Amino acid sequence: MLKLKRIFTYGFIFLFSILILSSCAKEDDIKYKHEKIEFENLASGYYYMPAKYLDTYYVENSETKYVDVSGFFKTLDGFYRNSYIKKSISKYRNIYTAYLYVSTGSSIEYASVTFDWINNEIKMNNPVFLNVVNTPSSVDFMAHLSELSPVTDKIVPVVYKLNDYGFDIFFKDGKCLVPLSIMNTIFLSPDYYNIYYNGEKYYGVYYDITSLDKETYNEIKTCKLNNEEQTKALREETYNQLRFVMDYYYGLKEYKNIESFDTLLDEYKEGILSLDIEKNREAYYKFFVNELDELHTRLGAYSFYNDASIKPDNWDPEKTSLTRNKYKLVQSYLQGLRPDDFDFDSPSYETKGQTLFIYMPSFNTGSIEELNSIDAYKYDSYECIKRGLSMIDYSTIRNVVLDLSLNGGGNVAALFRALGFLSDNSIDYTNYNALFQSRESILIDVDSNGDGLFDDKDSYSYLNWYILTSYNTFSAANSFAALAKSMGAFIIGQKTGGGMCSVLPIVLADSTTVEMSSAEACQMIKEEDGTYSYIEGGVDVDFELSYEKFYDYSYIDSLIHV
Fold it and tell me: Pick from 32, 218, 275, 477: most CB atoms within 10 A?
Protein backbone atom coordinates (compact mmCIF):
# COMPACT_ATOMS: atom_id res chain seq x y z
CA MET A 1 0.00 0.00 0.00
CA LEU A 2 1.49 3.31 -1.10
CA LYS A 3 1.11 6.30 1.18
CA LEU A 4 -1.19 9.21 0.57
CA LYS A 5 0.82 12.14 -0.77
CA ARG A 6 -0.69 14.95 1.30
CA ILE A 7 0.16 18.39 -0.01
CA PHE A 8 -1.94 20.97 1.78
CA THR A 9 -2.19 20.01 5.44
CA TYR A 10 0.86 22.11 6.27
CA GLY A 11 1.89 25.56 5.09
CA PHE A 12 5.59 26.24 5.21
CA ILE A 13 6.72 29.62 6.50
CA PHE A 14 9.84 31.30 5.21
CA LEU A 15 11.71 33.07 7.98
CA PHE A 16 15.01 34.92 7.77
CA SER A 17 17.70 33.18 9.76
CA ILE A 18 21.44 33.34 10.22
CA LEU A 19 23.70 30.36 9.78
CA ILE A 20 25.92 30.37 12.84
CA LEU A 21 29.37 28.93 12.28
CA SER A 22 31.02 29.29 15.65
CA SER A 23 34.66 28.75 16.43
CA CYS A 24 33.43 27.46 19.78
CA ALA A 25 31.96 24.39 18.13
CA LYS A 26 34.29 21.48 18.71
CA GLU A 27 35.57 19.99 15.46
CA ASP A 28 36.71 16.40 15.02
CA ASP A 29 40.41 15.80 14.56
CA ILE A 30 40.05 13.95 11.28
CA LYS A 31 41.21 14.04 7.70
CA TYR A 32 38.86 13.40 4.84
CA LYS A 33 38.94 13.04 1.08
CA HIS A 34 36.41 14.92 -1.05
CA GLU A 35 35.03 13.64 -4.34
CA LYS A 36 32.44 15.20 -6.66
CA ILE A 37 30.37 12.33 -7.99
CA GLU A 38 27.96 12.85 -10.86
CA PHE A 39 24.28 12.80 -9.89
CA GLU A 40 21.44 12.08 -12.33
CA ASN A 41 17.81 12.50 -11.33
CA LEU A 42 15.71 9.85 -13.06
CA ALA A 43 12.46 11.13 -11.54
CA SER A 44 12.15 14.22 -13.75
CA GLY A 45 8.49 13.37 -14.37
CA TYR A 46 7.93 14.00 -10.65
CA TYR A 47 10.63 16.47 -9.57
CA TYR A 48 12.88 18.95 -11.35
CA MET A 49 16.31 18.83 -9.72
CA PRO A 50 19.06 20.91 -11.38
CA ALA A 51 22.02 19.54 -9.37
CA LYS A 52 24.57 17.56 -11.37
CA TYR A 53 26.84 16.38 -8.55
CA LEU A 54 26.62 15.09 -5.01
CA ASP A 55 29.67 15.98 -2.92
CA THR A 56 30.94 12.82 -1.25
CA TYR A 57 33.46 12.46 1.56
CA TYR A 58 35.62 9.61 2.84
CA VAL A 59 36.79 10.02 6.44
CA GLU A 60 40.34 8.82 7.14
CA ASN A 61 40.65 5.49 5.31
CA SER A 62 36.99 4.53 5.52
CA GLU A 63 35.13 3.22 2.47
CA THR A 64 31.85 4.58 3.82
CA LYS A 65 30.42 7.38 1.72
CA TYR A 66 29.61 10.50 3.75
CA VAL A 67 27.66 13.57 2.72
CA ASP A 68 27.59 17.04 4.24
CA VAL A 69 24.07 17.65 5.57
CA SER A 70 23.80 21.10 4.00
CA GLY A 71 25.22 19.92 0.69
CA PHE A 72 22.89 16.93 0.70
CA PHE A 73 19.76 19.08 0.95
CA LYS A 74 21.19 21.46 -1.65
CA THR A 75 21.69 18.63 -4.15
CA LEU A 76 18.18 17.39 -3.43
CA ASP A 77 16.66 20.84 -4.02
CA GLY A 78 13.65 20.25 -6.23
CA PHE A 79 12.68 17.18 -4.28
CA TYR A 80 12.99 19.02 -0.98
CA ARG A 81 11.87 22.64 -0.85
CA ASN A 82 15.33 23.53 0.35
CA SER A 83 14.66 27.26 0.72
CA TYR A 84 12.36 26.52 3.67
CA ILE A 85 15.01 24.54 5.55
CA LYS A 86 17.16 26.73 7.79
CA LYS A 87 20.40 25.58 9.38
CA SER A 88 22.37 26.54 12.45
CA ILE A 89 25.33 25.27 14.44
CA SER A 90 25.23 25.60 18.20
CA LYS A 91 28.00 27.61 19.85
CA TYR A 92 27.99 25.49 22.96
CA ARG A 93 26.23 22.18 22.37
CA ASN A 94 28.19 21.00 19.31
CA ILE A 95 24.99 20.27 17.42
CA TYR A 96 24.07 20.98 13.80
CA THR A 97 20.36 21.79 13.39
CA ALA A 98 18.17 21.83 10.29
CA TYR A 99 14.75 23.31 11.02
CA LEU A 100 11.63 24.92 9.60
CA TYR A 101 8.33 26.40 10.74
CA VAL A 102 5.00 25.08 9.53
CA SER A 103 1.48 26.40 9.82
CA THR A 104 -1.09 23.73 10.69
CA GLY A 105 -3.99 26.16 10.32
CA SER A 106 -4.51 26.81 14.02
CA SER A 107 -0.89 27.10 15.12
CA ILE A 108 2.71 27.36 14.00
CA GLU A 109 4.92 24.38 14.74
CA TYR A 110 8.68 24.12 14.91
CA ALA A 111 10.09 21.04 13.20
CA SER A 112 13.76 20.23 13.48
CA VAL A 113 16.45 17.64 12.99
CA THR A 114 19.58 17.84 15.11
CA PHE A 115 22.89 16.14 14.39
CA ASP A 116 24.97 15.59 17.51
CA TRP A 117 28.49 14.67 16.37
CA ILE A 118 29.77 14.20 19.91
CA ASN A 119 27.23 11.52 20.87
CA ASN A 120 26.57 10.28 17.31
CA GLU A 121 22.83 10.89 17.53
CA ILE A 122 20.25 12.30 15.15
CA LYS A 123 17.02 13.61 16.66
CA MET A 124 13.85 14.53 14.76
CA ASN A 125 11.18 16.23 16.84
CA ASN A 126 8.28 16.22 14.38
CA PRO A 127 7.44 14.06 11.33
CA VAL A 128 6.19 17.11 9.43
CA PHE A 129 9.83 17.85 8.64
CA LEU A 130 9.54 15.08 6.06
CA ASN A 131 6.58 16.82 4.42
CA VAL A 132 8.70 19.66 3.04
CA VAL A 133 8.86 17.97 -0.35
CA ASN A 134 7.63 19.34 -3.63
CA THR A 135 4.38 18.14 -5.16
CA PRO A 136 4.97 15.60 -7.96
CA SER A 137 4.26 17.37 -11.22
CA SER A 138 2.65 14.48 -13.10
CA VAL A 139 0.21 13.07 -10.51
CA ASP A 140 -2.39 14.87 -8.38
CA PHE A 141 -2.79 12.54 -5.41
CA MET A 142 -5.18 14.94 -3.68
CA ALA A 143 -7.68 15.28 -6.53
CA HIS A 144 -11.30 15.29 -5.23
CA LEU A 145 -10.07 15.09 -1.60
CA SER A 146 -10.26 17.58 1.24
CA GLU A 147 -8.75 17.08 4.70
CA LEU A 148 -10.56 18.47 7.72
CA SER A 149 -8.55 19.44 10.80
CA PRO A 150 -6.18 16.52 11.39
CA VAL A 151 -5.55 15.94 15.10
CA THR A 152 -2.42 14.29 16.48
CA ASP A 153 -2.68 12.88 19.99
CA LYS A 154 1.04 13.08 20.78
CA ILE A 155 4.47 13.08 19.16
CA VAL A 156 7.46 11.45 20.81
CA PRO A 157 10.66 12.73 19.14
CA VAL A 158 12.73 9.96 17.61
CA VAL A 159 16.41 9.68 18.52
CA TYR A 160 18.55 7.65 16.14
CA LYS A 161 21.41 6.28 18.23
CA LEU A 162 24.06 5.64 15.58
CA ASN A 163 26.60 4.28 18.07
CA ASP A 164 24.39 1.22 18.48
CA TYR A 165 24.86 0.47 14.79
CA GLY A 166 28.53 1.30 14.30
CA PHE A 167 27.98 4.63 12.51
CA ASP A 168 29.65 7.98 13.16
CA ILE A 169 28.82 11.64 12.61
CA PHE A 170 31.77 14.01 12.08
CA PHE A 171 32.08 17.80 12.08
CA LYS A 172 35.03 19.36 10.27
CA ASP A 173 35.58 22.63 8.41
CA GLY A 174 31.96 23.65 9.03
CA LYS A 175 30.69 20.43 7.44
CA CYS A 176 28.47 17.99 9.29
CA LEU A 177 29.29 14.61 7.74
CA VAL A 178 26.80 11.75 7.97
CA PRO A 179 26.88 8.36 6.16
CA LEU A 180 24.93 8.55 2.91
CA SER A 181 23.20 5.25 3.67
CA ILE A 182 21.74 6.76 6.85
CA MET A 183 20.73 10.06 5.19
CA ASN A 184 19.06 8.17 2.36
CA THR A 185 17.13 6.01 4.83
CA ILE A 186 15.91 8.85 7.06
CA PHE A 187 15.25 11.67 4.59
CA LEU A 188 14.50 10.08 1.21
CA SER A 189 13.05 6.57 1.48
CA PRO A 190 9.98 7.59 3.57
CA ASP A 191 9.06 10.09 0.85
CA TYR A 192 9.51 7.54 -1.95
CA TYR A 193 12.82 8.70 -3.39
CA ASN A 194 16.11 6.82 -3.25
CA ILE A 195 19.71 7.33 -4.34
CA TYR A 196 21.77 4.51 -5.88
CA TYR A 197 25.49 4.35 -6.63
CA ASN A 198 26.53 1.92 -9.37
CA GLY A 199 30.27 2.47 -9.14
CA GLU A 200 30.27 5.35 -11.59
CA LYS A 201 27.63 7.86 -10.54
CA TYR A 202 24.59 8.42 -8.37
CA TYR A 203 21.06 7.93 -9.64
CA GLY A 204 18.03 9.41 -7.93
CA VAL A 205 14.84 7.44 -8.59
CA TYR A 206 11.20 7.75 -7.66
CA TYR A 207 10.27 4.95 -5.22
CA ASP A 208 13.08 2.51 -6.09
CA ILE A 209 14.94 1.03 -9.04
CA THR A 210 12.20 -1.54 -9.71
CA SER A 211 9.90 1.32 -10.77
CA LEU A 212 12.12 2.20 -13.74
CA ASP A 213 11.30 1.06 -17.24
CA LYS A 214 13.05 -2.14 -18.31
CA GLU A 215 15.59 -0.44 -20.56
CA THR A 216 16.70 2.10 -17.94
CA TYR A 217 16.75 -0.56 -15.23
CA ASN A 218 19.05 -2.80 -17.27
CA GLU A 219 21.26 0.15 -18.23
CA ILE A 220 21.88 1.08 -14.59
CA LYS A 221 22.20 -2.49 -13.36
CA THR A 222 24.83 -3.30 -15.98
CA CYS A 223 27.82 -1.54 -14.46
CA LYS A 224 31.43 -1.85 -13.33
CA LEU A 225 30.39 -3.33 -9.98
CA ASN A 226 28.89 -6.45 -11.58
CA ASN A 227 30.71 -9.52 -10.24
CA GLU A 228 33.31 -7.34 -8.50
CA GLU A 229 34.67 -8.63 -5.21
CA GLN A 230 33.06 -7.04 -2.18
CA THR A 231 34.99 -5.75 0.81
CA LYS A 232 34.57 -6.61 4.46
CA ALA A 233 33.89 -2.95 5.23
CA LEU A 234 31.00 -2.82 2.74
CA ARG A 235 29.43 -5.97 4.18
CA GLU A 236 29.69 -4.60 7.71
CA GLU A 237 28.14 -1.25 6.74
CA THR A 238 25.32 -3.06 4.95
CA TYR A 239 24.62 -5.34 7.92
CA ASN A 240 24.67 -2.44 10.37
CA GLN A 241 22.35 -0.39 8.17
CA LEU A 242 19.98 -3.35 7.95
CA ARG A 243 19.88 -3.54 11.76
CA PHE A 244 19.21 0.21 11.87
CA VAL A 245 16.43 0.00 9.30
CA MET A 246 14.65 -2.92 10.91
CA ASP A 247 14.79 -1.51 14.45
CA TYR A 248 13.49 1.93 13.52
CA TYR A 249 11.34 1.40 10.45
CA TYR A 250 9.79 -2.06 10.40
CA GLY A 251 6.10 -1.39 11.03
CA LEU A 252 5.17 -4.84 12.33
CA LYS A 253 7.83 -4.92 15.02
CA GLU A 254 5.29 -4.36 17.80
CA TYR A 255 2.64 -6.53 16.14
CA LYS A 256 5.11 -9.43 16.03
CA ASN A 257 6.45 -8.71 19.53
CA ILE A 258 10.01 -8.09 18.31
CA GLU A 259 11.98 -6.05 20.83
CA SER A 260 15.21 -5.89 18.81
CA PHE A 261 16.30 -7.37 15.53
CA ASP A 262 19.78 -8.29 16.80
CA THR A 263 18.59 -11.71 17.95
CA LEU A 264 16.36 -12.33 14.94
CA LEU A 265 19.12 -11.38 12.48
CA ASP A 266 21.76 -13.45 14.24
CA GLU A 267 20.84 -16.57 12.23
CA TYR A 268 21.46 -14.67 8.97
CA LYS A 269 24.43 -12.59 10.06
CA GLU A 270 27.13 -14.88 8.67
CA GLY A 271 25.49 -14.96 5.23
CA ILE A 272 24.92 -11.21 5.07
CA LEU A 273 28.50 -10.46 6.17
CA SER A 274 29.99 -13.03 3.80
CA LEU A 275 32.08 -11.86 0.85
CA ASP A 276 30.40 -14.59 -1.21
CA ILE A 277 27.62 -12.92 -3.20
CA GLU A 278 25.57 -16.12 -3.40
CA LYS A 279 25.57 -16.42 0.39
CA ASN A 280 24.39 -12.78 0.57
CA ARG A 281 21.45 -13.56 -1.71
CA GLU A 282 20.53 -16.69 0.22
CA ALA A 283 20.61 -14.90 3.58
CA TYR A 284 18.56 -11.96 2.27
CA TYR A 285 15.93 -14.30 0.84
CA LYS A 286 15.61 -16.40 3.98
CA PHE A 287 15.28 -13.33 6.19
CA PHE A 288 12.99 -11.05 4.19
CA VAL A 289 10.82 -13.67 2.49
CA ASN A 290 10.81 -16.69 4.83
CA GLU A 291 11.50 -15.26 8.28
CA LEU A 292 9.32 -12.15 8.12
CA ASP A 293 6.74 -13.97 6.00
CA GLU A 294 4.35 -11.15 5.10
CA LEU A 295 3.43 -9.74 1.72
CA HIS A 296 4.48 -6.12 2.25
CA THR A 297 8.09 -7.13 2.82
CA ARG A 298 10.06 -8.47 -0.11
CA LEU A 299 13.28 -8.26 -2.06
CA GLY A 300 13.09 -5.71 -4.85
CA ALA A 301 16.49 -6.11 -6.52
CA TYR A 302 19.80 -7.66 -5.61
CA SER A 303 22.89 -5.47 -5.35
CA PHE A 304 24.95 -4.25 -8.29
CA TYR A 305 27.68 -6.68 -7.24
CA ASN A 306 25.53 -9.47 -8.67
CA ASP A 307 25.35 -10.24 -12.33
CA ALA A 308 22.85 -7.76 -13.79
CA SER A 309 20.58 -10.57 -15.01
CA ILE A 310 19.96 -12.03 -11.54
CA LYS A 311 16.65 -10.99 -10.01
CA PRO A 312 14.93 -12.16 -6.81
CA ASP A 313 11.87 -14.36 -7.17
CA ASN A 314 9.86 -13.76 -4.02
CA TRP A 315 7.26 -16.25 -5.27
CA ASP A 316 9.47 -19.25 -6.06
CA PRO A 317 7.20 -22.13 -4.92
CA GLU A 318 10.21 -24.20 -3.88
CA LYS A 319 11.67 -21.52 -1.58
CA THR A 320 9.01 -18.98 -0.66
CA SER A 321 6.98 -18.70 2.53
CA LEU A 322 3.69 -20.33 3.51
CA THR A 323 1.89 -16.98 3.27
CA ARG A 324 3.00 -16.40 -0.29
CA ASN A 325 2.17 -19.94 -1.35
CA LYS A 326 -1.33 -19.63 0.11
CA TYR A 327 -1.78 -16.31 -1.72
CA LYS A 328 -0.75 -17.94 -5.00
CA LEU A 329 -3.06 -20.93 -4.46
CA VAL A 330 -6.08 -18.68 -3.87
CA GLN A 331 -5.12 -16.52 -6.83
CA SER A 332 -4.79 -19.52 -9.16
CA TYR A 333 -8.08 -20.99 -8.02
CA LEU A 334 -10.03 -17.75 -8.45
CA GLN A 335 -8.46 -17.00 -11.80
CA GLY A 336 -9.43 -20.50 -12.93
CA LEU A 337 -13.08 -19.65 -12.32
CA ARG A 338 -12.98 -16.86 -14.90
CA PRO A 339 -13.14 -17.29 -18.70
CA ASP A 340 -9.76 -17.76 -20.39
CA ASP A 341 -9.96 -14.35 -22.06
CA PHE A 342 -10.75 -12.44 -18.86
CA ASP A 343 -8.36 -9.51 -18.32
CA PHE A 344 -7.43 -9.60 -14.64
CA ASP A 345 -5.44 -6.36 -14.89
CA SER A 346 -8.33 -4.17 -16.09
CA PRO A 347 -11.66 -3.21 -14.50
CA SER A 348 -14.80 -4.91 -15.76
CA TYR A 349 -18.52 -4.36 -15.31
CA GLU A 350 -21.47 -6.74 -15.25
CA THR A 351 -25.10 -6.51 -14.15
CA LYS A 352 -27.19 -9.35 -12.83
CA GLY A 353 -30.76 -8.79 -11.64
CA GLN A 354 -30.71 -5.82 -9.27
CA THR A 355 -26.94 -5.74 -8.87
CA LEU A 356 -24.02 -4.01 -10.58
CA PHE A 357 -20.69 -5.81 -10.20
CA ILE A 358 -17.51 -3.77 -10.60
CA TYR A 359 -14.28 -5.74 -10.72
CA MET A 360 -11.36 -3.60 -9.48
CA PRO A 361 -7.88 -5.15 -9.71
CA SER A 362 -6.11 -2.41 -7.71
CA PHE A 363 -6.41 1.08 -6.23
CA ASN A 364 -4.73 3.52 -8.58
CA THR A 365 -4.27 7.25 -8.95
CA GLY A 366 -3.90 8.06 -12.62
CA SER A 367 -1.40 10.56 -13.95
CA ILE A 368 -2.65 13.76 -15.52
CA GLU A 369 -1.92 12.27 -18.94
CA GLU A 370 -3.78 9.04 -18.13
CA LEU A 371 -6.80 10.92 -16.81
CA ASN A 372 -7.06 12.79 -20.09
CA SER A 373 -7.18 9.56 -22.10
CA ILE A 374 -10.33 7.77 -23.25
CA ASP A 375 -9.36 4.83 -21.04
CA ALA A 376 -8.99 6.83 -17.83
CA TYR A 377 -11.03 4.21 -15.94
CA LYS A 378 -8.23 1.67 -16.47
CA TYR A 379 -5.70 3.85 -14.64
CA ASP A 380 -7.72 5.53 -11.89
CA SER A 381 -10.04 3.94 -9.32
CA TYR A 382 -12.28 7.02 -9.05
CA GLU A 383 -12.84 6.99 -12.80
CA CYS A 384 -13.38 3.21 -12.68
CA ILE A 385 -16.29 3.42 -10.23
CA LYS A 386 -17.66 6.59 -11.83
CA ARG A 387 -17.82 4.83 -15.20
CA GLY A 388 -19.65 1.82 -13.76
CA LEU A 389 -22.24 3.94 -11.99
CA SER A 390 -22.91 5.89 -15.19
CA MET A 391 -23.80 2.70 -17.04
CA ILE A 392 -26.63 1.38 -14.87
CA ASP A 393 -30.39 1.60 -15.08
CA TYR A 394 -31.43 3.08 -11.75
CA SER A 395 -35.00 1.85 -12.16
CA THR A 396 -33.77 -1.71 -11.60
CA ILE A 397 -30.35 -1.54 -9.91
CA ARG A 398 -30.42 -1.50 -6.11
CA ASN A 399 -27.06 -2.99 -5.22
CA VAL A 400 -23.40 -2.48 -6.09
CA VAL A 401 -20.78 -5.15 -5.45
CA LEU A 402 -17.19 -3.96 -5.60
CA ASP A 403 -15.26 -7.09 -6.48
CA LEU A 404 -11.92 -6.78 -4.66
CA SER A 405 -11.29 -10.52 -4.59
CA LEU A 406 -7.98 -10.18 -6.47
CA ASN A 407 -7.19 -6.61 -5.46
CA GLY A 408 -3.70 -6.56 -3.93
CA GLY A 409 -3.77 -2.89 -2.91
CA GLY A 410 -2.35 0.31 -4.32
CA ASN A 411 -2.50 3.96 -3.39
CA VAL A 412 -4.27 5.22 -0.26
CA ALA A 413 -5.49 8.39 -1.97
CA ALA A 414 -7.25 6.23 -4.56
CA LEU A 415 -9.10 4.22 -1.92
CA PHE A 416 -10.35 7.44 -0.29
CA ARG A 417 -11.80 8.66 -3.58
CA ALA A 418 -13.47 5.28 -4.06
CA LEU A 419 -14.99 5.41 -0.55
CA GLY A 420 -16.58 8.75 -1.38
CA PHE A 421 -19.14 7.01 -3.58
CA LEU A 422 -20.47 5.02 -0.61
CA SER A 423 -21.47 7.83 1.74
CA ASP A 424 -21.74 11.60 2.09
CA ASN A 425 -20.26 11.39 5.58
CA SER A 426 -16.63 12.31 6.11
CA ILE A 427 -14.20 9.39 6.10
CA ASP A 428 -12.88 8.91 9.62
CA TYR A 429 -9.31 7.72 9.15
CA THR A 430 -6.51 7.07 11.61
CA ASN A 431 -2.81 6.92 10.80
CA TYR A 432 -0.43 5.48 13.39
CA ASN A 433 3.26 6.34 13.15
CA ALA A 434 5.24 3.83 15.22
CA LEU A 435 8.47 5.79 14.73
CA PHE A 436 7.06 8.85 16.56
CA GLN A 437 4.49 6.84 18.55
CA SER A 438 1.86 9.25 17.26
CA ARG A 439 -1.70 8.65 16.16
CA GLU A 440 -3.21 11.15 13.73
CA SER A 441 -6.97 11.28 13.28
CA ILE A 442 -8.14 12.72 9.98
CA LEU A 443 -11.56 13.48 8.52
CA ILE A 444 -11.60 13.37 4.73
CA ASP A 445 -14.33 14.66 2.44
CA VAL A 446 -14.66 13.50 -1.15
CA ASP A 447 -16.07 15.43 -4.10
CA SER A 448 -17.62 12.38 -5.74
CA ASN A 449 -19.30 14.13 -8.66
CA GLY A 450 -16.30 16.31 -9.47
CA ASP A 451 -18.10 19.65 -9.28
CA GLY A 452 -15.52 21.16 -6.95
CA LEU A 453 -17.86 21.20 -3.95
CA PHE A 454 -17.32 19.13 -0.83
CA ASP A 455 -20.46 20.05 1.08
CA ASP A 456 -23.09 18.80 -1.35
CA LYS A 457 -24.71 15.38 -1.26
CA ASP A 458 -23.19 13.66 -4.27
CA SER A 459 -22.53 10.09 -3.12
CA TYR A 460 -24.53 7.00 -4.10
CA SER A 461 -25.52 6.16 -0.54
CA TYR A 462 -29.06 5.28 -1.68
CA LEU A 463 -27.60 2.11 -3.21
CA ASN A 464 -26.73 -0.96 -1.13
CA TRP A 465 -22.96 -1.43 -1.18
CA TYR A 466 -21.21 -4.78 -0.84
CA ILE A 467 -17.51 -5.57 -0.95
CA LEU A 468 -16.47 -9.00 -2.26
CA THR A 469 -13.22 -10.00 -0.54
CA SER A 470 -10.86 -12.96 -0.42
CA TYR A 471 -7.53 -13.87 1.16
CA ASN A 472 -6.00 -11.96 -1.76
CA THR A 473 -7.76 -8.72 -0.79
CA PHE A 474 -4.68 -7.12 0.65
CA SER A 475 -3.04 -3.86 1.73
CA ALA A 476 -5.03 -0.82 0.52
CA ALA A 477 -7.89 -3.17 -0.42
CA ASN A 478 -7.83 -4.52 3.14
CA SER A 479 -8.03 -0.96 4.50
CA PHE A 480 -10.84 -0.16 2.06
CA ALA A 481 -12.83 -3.15 3.32
CA ALA A 482 -12.35 -2.08 6.96
CA LEU A 483 -13.36 1.52 6.28
CA ALA A 484 -16.27 0.57 4.04
CA LYS A 485 -17.58 -1.75 6.75
CA SER A 486 -17.41 1.06 9.30
CA MET A 487 -19.40 3.22 6.85
CA GLY A 488 -22.23 0.69 6.55
CA ALA A 489 -21.18 -1.48 3.59
CA PHE A 490 -21.41 -5.25 3.85
CA ILE A 491 -18.37 -7.49 3.41
CA ILE A 492 -19.10 -10.75 1.59
CA GLY A 493 -16.89 -13.64 0.56
CA GLN A 494 -13.90 -14.67 2.68
CA LYS A 495 -11.82 -12.83 5.28
CA THR A 496 -9.30 -10.45 3.75
CA GLY A 497 -5.57 -11.17 3.70
CA GLY A 498 -4.56 -8.22 5.88
CA GLY A 499 -1.80 -5.67 5.37
CA MET A 500 -2.10 -2.45 7.37
CA CYS A 501 1.20 -0.65 6.75
CA SER A 502 2.34 1.48 3.88
CA VAL A 503 5.31 0.13 1.95
CA LEU A 504 8.77 1.58 2.53
CA PRO A 505 11.38 1.20 -0.25
CA ILE A 506 14.87 0.92 1.21
CA VAL A 507 18.29 0.88 -0.47
CA LEU A 508 21.02 -0.81 1.53
CA ALA A 509 24.66 0.26 1.41
CA ASP A 510 25.50 -2.53 -1.06
CA SER A 511 22.62 -1.27 -3.34
CA THR A 512 20.25 -4.13 -2.48
CA THR A 513 16.64 -2.95 -2.77
CA VAL A 514 14.16 -4.00 -0.10
CA GLU A 515 10.48 -3.13 0.22
CA MET A 516 9.03 -3.54 3.69
CA SER A 517 6.12 -2.76 5.98
CA SER A 518 6.82 0.79 7.08
CA ALA A 519 6.41 2.42 10.48
CA GLU A 520 3.12 3.96 9.33
CA ALA A 521 0.03 1.83 9.84
CA CYS A 522 -2.33 3.52 7.46
CA GLN A 523 -5.56 2.23 8.90
CA MET A 524 -6.61 1.12 12.36
CA ILE A 525 -10.12 0.65 13.73
CA LYS A 526 -11.26 2.33 16.93
CA GLU A 527 -13.13 0.03 19.29
CA GLU A 528 -16.10 0.97 21.50
CA ASP A 529 -13.86 1.25 24.55
CA GLY A 530 -11.70 3.87 22.83
CA THR A 531 -8.79 1.56 22.00
CA TYR A 532 -7.43 0.78 18.55
CA SER A 533 -7.01 -2.64 17.00
CA TYR A 534 -4.79 -3.80 14.18
CA ILE A 535 -6.20 -4.97 10.85
CA GLU A 536 -2.99 -6.75 9.86
CA GLY A 537 -4.79 -10.04 10.44
CA GLY A 538 -7.61 -9.18 8.02
CA VAL A 539 -11.24 -8.01 8.06
CA ASP A 540 -14.05 -10.45 8.87
CA VAL A 541 -16.97 -10.89 6.48
CA ASP A 542 -20.64 -10.25 7.17
CA PHE A 543 -21.76 -12.96 4.73
CA GLU A 544 -19.46 -15.87 3.95
CA LEU A 545 -19.25 -17.33 0.45
CA SER A 546 -17.32 -20.38 -0.64
CA TYR A 547 -14.67 -19.54 -3.22
CA GLU A 548 -16.47 -21.60 -5.86
CA LYS A 549 -19.40 -19.13 -5.70
CA PHE A 550 -17.30 -15.95 -5.99
CA TYR A 551 -18.02 -15.25 -9.64
CA ASP A 552 -21.48 -16.73 -9.81
CA TYR A 553 -22.92 -13.24 -9.97
CA SER A 554 -26.48 -14.46 -10.44
CA TYR A 555 -26.21 -16.43 -7.20
CA ILE A 556 -24.78 -13.42 -5.36
CA ASP A 557 -27.56 -11.19 -6.72
CA SER A 558 -30.20 -13.62 -5.45
CA LEU A 559 -28.41 -13.82 -2.08
CA ILE A 560 -28.43 -10.06 -1.52
CA HIS A 561 -31.72 -9.39 -3.31
CA VAL A 562 -33.57 -6.54 -1.62
Answer: 477
